[in-house]
Specification:
Elements: E1 10-14, H1 22-31, E2 32-33, E3 35-39, H2 45-51, E4 56-58, H3 65-71, E5 74-77, H4 81-89, E6 94-96, H5 101-112, E7 116-118, H6 125-143, E8 147-148
Parallel strand pairs: 1-3, 1-5, 3-4, 5-6, 6-7
Antiparallel strand pairs: 2-8
């Protein structure tokens, strides 16, 4: 994959355009001092233009998860079993955002296995904000990979 330039960690986000909190997630990703590639099938060009920057790019075509997992430091996705498996097998920490019951079950299992943190399906947006902060704060303070400019304005 062609990652944005810079020295921050590499984050891959594979999301769906109809996810109700997509703008929030993209706002957070655009504020990280990281190199983010996002694949969002069917994303409106106007939305990608609003968020695209030197550190956040959008792939117009699907990427090989096997190839991305070799280089990514983090992954954010909707908790498809295959996606979780590829990134877990590569040792990539994941933030999962399930949008349906099967994904919720996958996310629960991944969290229990210690390979992911997840946003409970149908939880309030404030919960997503809190969990994102915890996920990135943990990796900033404990793992030391993320350098946050600012995450969320409160």
């Amino acid at each position: 994959p062609k990652w944005p330039t810079g020295s921050g960690p590499k984050i891959f986000a594979y999301l769906k355009p109809k996810f109700p909190h997509l703008d929030f997630v993209l706002t957070v990703l655009s504020r990280l001092d990281a190199r983010v590639i996002s694949y969002i099938p069917g994303l409106a060009t106007t939305i990608s233009r609003n968020f695209e920057s030197a550190s956040l790019s959008f792939s117009p075509t699907p990427l090989s998860l096997a190839e991305v997992s070799k280089e990514a430091d983090y992954a954010i996705c909707h908790a498809g079993a295959g996606t979780i498996d590829v990134f877990a097998s590569a040792g990539v920490p994941q933030f999962l955002i399930p949008t349906q019951m099967e994904q919720m079950m996958n996310a629960t299992r991944a969290a229990e296995a210690g390979v992911a943190m997840f946003y409970p399906q149908n939880a309030q947006p404030q919960v997503l904000q809190k969990l994102f902060k915890q996920f990135f704060k943990f990796h900033f303070e404990v793992v030391g990979k993320l350098q946050l400019k600012y995450l969320i304005e409160n």
